[in-house]
């Protein structure tokens, strides 16, 4: 039992060490985005199709809400800026209060259909029910 706990802690440390800080631009929202981290990235992301990328968004919400929803979309920079929603889900146990730091975690797996393109990845964190956007950030990503 103790060995599995130690192994889980080591694996958690390895996963956290591989998540680098990514340069993002704020797009809207009443809350405050603090930091974005994505596994195997540092500054700018280059995604390998089929590989899982774990993302973490630290933020401070603008107000209290019993539940948050995460929406992630990919926008093509060529072809008129067409966007495709890849995640739209309530975050479990996501009651928040203003003035505290929270972290939303999610994973994305790029499809090979996007190979050899630069896409804009947008993440929105909103109040469930009212769709009031607290945080919106985006970054450009090269899909190899």
- What spatial form do the alpha-carbon principal axes imply? globular
The major β-sheet equals: 6 strands, mixed
Helix content: 10-25%
**N→C terminal distance:** 41 Å
Poorly predicted residue ranges: 1-17
Computed CA radius of gyration, to the nearest angstrom: 16 Å
Strand content: over 45%
Number of domains: 1
Describe the structure concisely:
Strands 2, 4, 6, 7, 9 and 10 form a six-stranded mixed β-sheet that branches. Strands 1-3-5-8 form a four-stranded antiparallel β-sheet.
Description:
This protein has 1 helix and 10 strands; from the N terminus they run H-E-E-E-E-E-E-E-E-E-E. With 144 residues, it is mainly beta. It has a single domain, classed as Immunoglobulin-like. The strands form 2 sheets. Strands 2, 4, 6, 7, 9 and 10 form a 6-stranded mixed sheet that branches. Strand 6 and strand 7 form a beta hairpin. The longest helix is centred in the N-terminal third of the chain and has 17 residues. InterPro entries: Ig_E-set (IPR014756). Keywords: Signal.
SSE order and pairing:
Layout: H1 2-18, E1 19-21, E2 25-28, E3 32-39, E4 45-47, E5 53-60, E6 68-76, E7 83-91, E8 102-108, E9 117-127, E10 133-143
Parallel strand pairs: 4-10
Antiparallel strand pairs: 1-3, 2-10, 3-5, 5-8, 6-7, 6-9, 9-10
Keywords: Signal
InterPro entries: Ig_E-set
Signal peptide: 1-19
Annotation keywords:
single chain, 144 residues, mainly beta, Immunoglobulin-like, 6-stranded mixed β-sheet, 4-stranded antiparallel β-sheet, 1 helix
